[in-house]
Design brief:
By secondary structure, the chain is α/β, with parallel strands linked by helices. About 40% of the residues lie in helices and about 20% in strands. Bound molecules: shikimate-3-phosphate (S3P) and phosphoenolpyruvate. It holds the Pfam family EPSP_synthase.
């Protein structure tokens, strides 16, 4: 850590175990304290601390230790807090800030209030969530808090300046600081840490009391060992925690007992639907909660080992994030079946859930975005089997059968999930809240919220109009006629889904054609949808009937290969069963205008959606001015199109695409930055870009690219390597899994020099 001016004059650490010792070590390393002092009842600990160079002075008399301190960190067991506060209070200065590391906050705050007297206003309660597998001063580790979370739980009595100072302290040693109310902290810890320990202790104890317990333990397999590992934790420490956090632990235990009773009843009654519902939800829930905490991708959390999960969770978003390494040149050949269509996959779950009967889906996209939708419906009580190799069975609950979710619905990175669900949830009788990852929580949601309010919905967003989105529910909706200011299929779809619940007719007029999967699929589920030019209308009060669906391959995923094969001489690829809905084929039109050689073979209908096998051969490309009417029809494909433009003769100019600035990243800026890094000549406009291309040979230099956590940016620059003069490295590629899991393997199989690390 770099040396900086000391943040504090004297810091005193009371209790020099792993937690206290590690803070001392980190402050020492960073030069953050002018003087470091330790206080401990144990002479041996103090000797070790001095010998290790952690502190400059050490006292068994705690009052002596805090004399002259600017900041005191109390890191003793929770049951010893009251005595410690009483011992130090008389020696604290008028400005001394006191903070602690106790794992239960309510009782520590109460002890501080009783014993710190006037100093209570400068007491900032805290809880570092850091590894505790080793203990004692010998385990002190200057790096312990780096990228770990510290929860601060200031009370109304806490001086905000003191809180700010403690926040500065933790940030300076590399931690991420979160604020919580004390009661919330104790409840959350009771649920996520104390209850599991209670269950493990209770299970092992219960089994060990049975007559044949020797046999039980002899035959105990991995599951038993995994589940009960934490029953080996220190009984004295856990005794203190259960006693100190009594109320929250009891509430969590009661909640669990009710869940156990439900499960028991389902077994007793042979209730397959309840059993499947509970277990399919549980299957993915853990990975999802951890992903949600880390505000990271969900399939990553799902594929990770326990250790990685906990690390990702502790390290606040630092989940392992793959890096793409590309060798330059090469060509693409063969046949590639790209991932299932994302837009159709989302809607297959939504409409399947609201239908009467069981909907069977094939070709479902097992990408993060579609899975976020799937999980949201599980959270609302819908039994969904799968996905297994693209097959999903949705047990529809009917238009009015959804149940209130017990917690915030996590939409990960998916704008489609959030916006469509806003419409659907506005029509429900219950309240709900939607949130997402760092990218999604910065995207605009008022474009949907405003017209829904006109229909009568009660919806809140943040001051910036971004998520979290809260929906009051239980409000009667009235059909409206809405003319969309932006061409957005998500806005249109949200209003149509709300329209299912509205009184009368809901109609939406679009300024330019956008993807019409919602309209087609509603009709496929038996709902009457009227289309008249740019206006689509539905009347509330009908019903949906389950059906079977085959999701075609996603033309947005095929786009990377259409561009890759076009720009790499000697390429020829066949992309079977790709959706060629005319509201999605802008990419084909644009590439053809540039001179690409793309053939549609075997055109057919698949469940109401046109599909074809796409054959693409390399061809010399030329720059064009992209026709305005094609912009909404190729909206997600522009990152890939920009790569084609950089490999075309002359200039390509795009206008009218300001929407690109509010996708998973600002795609105009993210692509321009990457293109410039790779030596291309570009100029950006508020609504577009100009790119000068190089028709032959290397169009790109080597370079390091930032994906900005945007799947389409990552995949576009991967394809660029086909025409680069040196290696390209792309950082933060986890989000490729949102729309195209398996991209790297498929692309490498077809000839792209792509390997993945991290
Ligand atoms: O409705 C859909 O499935 C989508 C609509 C488009 O968004 P907008 O409606 O914001 O243009 C598109 O970018 C997105 O990937 C999927
Ligand atoms: C914009 C996209 O998706 P969404 O809006 O669903 O996040 C996309 O996939 O490119």
């Amino acid at each position: 850590m770099a040396q900086s001016a000391p943040l504090f004059g004297q810091v005193t650490v009371i209790g020099l175990g792993l937690i206290g010792g590690s803070l001392a070590a980190a402050l020492r390393n960073g030069g953050l304290a002018g003087r470091l002092v330790a206080g401990s009842r144990s002479a041996r600990t103090l000797e070790r601390g001095l010998a290790m160079g952690l502190v400059d002075a050490a006292y068994q008399d705690l009052a002596e230790a805090v004399r002259g301190a600017d900041l005191v960190f109390v890191a003793v067991p929770v049951s010893a807090m009251a005595d410690t506060f009483a011992a130090i209070a008389p020696a604290l200065g008028r400005h001394t800030i006191i903070t602690d590391g106790g794992s239960v906050k309510g009782p520590v705050i109460e002890a501080a209030r009783q014993h710190l007297g006037v100093h209570y206003a400068r007491f900032v309660p805290g809880h570092p969530i850091a590894g505790k597998e080793r203990s004692g001063v010998e385990a002190a580790d200057a790096a312990l808090y780096q990228r770990h979370r510290i929860i601060l739980t200031p009370t109304e009595a806490t001086d905000p300046a003191a809180t700010a100072k403690v926040r500065q302290l933790w940030t300076a040693v590399g931690a991420e600081v979160l604020d919580m109310r004390p009661a919330e902290h104790d409840r959350v810890l009771a649920e996520t840490s104390h209850l599991p320990h209670l269950l493990a202790f209770a299970l092992v104890d219960t089994l060990s009391r049975q007559g044949d317990s020797t046999d039980i333990f002899r035959y105990a397999a991995g599951g038993f060992r995994d589940f009960t590992r934490i029953a080996s934790s220190d009984p004295v420490m856990w005794h203190d925690i259960f006693i100190e956090n009594r109320d929250a632990v009891l509430a969590a235990a009661d909640e669990f007992a009710a869940g156990l009773a439900r499960f028991r009843a389902a077994v007793a009654n042979g209730d397959s639907e309840a059993l499947l519902g509970t277990m399919t939800r549980a299957n993915t829930a853990r990975a999802r909660f951890l992903a949600m905490n880390a505000r990271t991708s969900y399939t990553h959390a799902q594929g990770a080992t326990d250790e990685q999960l906990m690390k990702a969770d502790n390290q606040a978003g630092q989940a392992r994030n793959p890096v793409f390494h590309l060798t330059p040149g090469g060509r693409l050949n063969g046949q590639i079946r790209v991932a299932g269509d994302k837009s159709i996959s989302h809607r297959s779950i939504m409409l399947g859930a609201l239908a009467e009967g069981v909907t069977e889906i094939e070709g479902f996209l097992e990408g993060e975005d579609a899975l976020a939708t799937l999980e949201a419906f599980r959270d609302m009580g819908v039994v969904i089997e799968g996905p297994h190799a693209g097959r999903v069975r949705v047990h529809g609950v009917g238009l009015h059968g959804l149940k209130a979710p017990s917690r915030t619905l996590y939409m990960g990175n998916s704008g489609t999930s959030m916006r469509l669900l806003m419409g659907l949830l506005a029509g429900q009788s219950f309240a709900s809240e939607l949130t997402g990852d760092a990218s999604l929580t910065s995207r605009p949601m008022e474009r949907v919220a405003q017209p829904l309010r006109q229909m009568g919905a009660a919806i809140g967003t943040t001051g910036d109009g971004t998520p979290p989105v809260s929906i009051r529910g239980g409000r009667p909706l009235e059909g409206i006629h809405f003319t969309m200011p932006v061409a957005s299929a998500q806005v249109k779809s949200a209003l149509l889904l709300a329209g299912l619940y509205a009184h009368g007719r809901t109609s939406v007029t679009e300024p330019a054609p956008t993807r019409d999967h919602t309209e087609r699929m509603l009709a496929g589920f038996g709902y009457d949808v009227q289309r008249d030019g740019a206006t689509v209308t539905i009347t509330g009060g009908g019903g949906l009937t389950a059906c079977n669906l085959e999701v075609p391959a996603d033309i947005s995923s095929a786009a990377f290969f259409l561009v890759g094969a076009s720009i790499a001489p000697g390429s020829e690829l066949l992309l079977p069963h790709v959706g060629i809905n005319p509201t999605r084929t802008g990419i084909i039109d644009i590439l053809r205008l540039m001179g690409a050689d793309i053939q549609l073979e075997n055109e057919r209908d698949s469940g109401g959606e046109p599909v074809a096998d796409l054959r693409v051969r390399s061809a010399p490309l030329k720059g064009i001015t992209i026709p305005q009417e094609l912009v909404p029809l190729a909206i997600d494909e522009f990152p890939a199109i920009f790569i084609a433009a950089a490999c075309a003769e002359g200039e390509t100019i795009l206008h009218g695409a300001e929407e690109l600035r509010v996708k998973e990243s600002d795609r105009i800026q993210a692509m321009a930055d990457g293109l410039v890094t790779l030596g291309a000549e570009v100029e950006t406009y508020p609504d577009g870009i100009r790119i000068r291309g190089i028709a032959e040979g290397a169009a790109f230099t080597q370079g390091e690219i930032e994906s900005h956590d945007d799947h389409r940016i990552a995949m576009s620059f991967a394809i660029a390597a086909l025409r680069a003069s040196g290696p390209i490295t792309i950082h933060n590629c986890a989000n490729v899994a949102t729309s195209f899991p398996g991209f790297a393997e498929l692309a490498a199989g077809a000839g792209l020099g792509l390997t993945v690390s991290g």
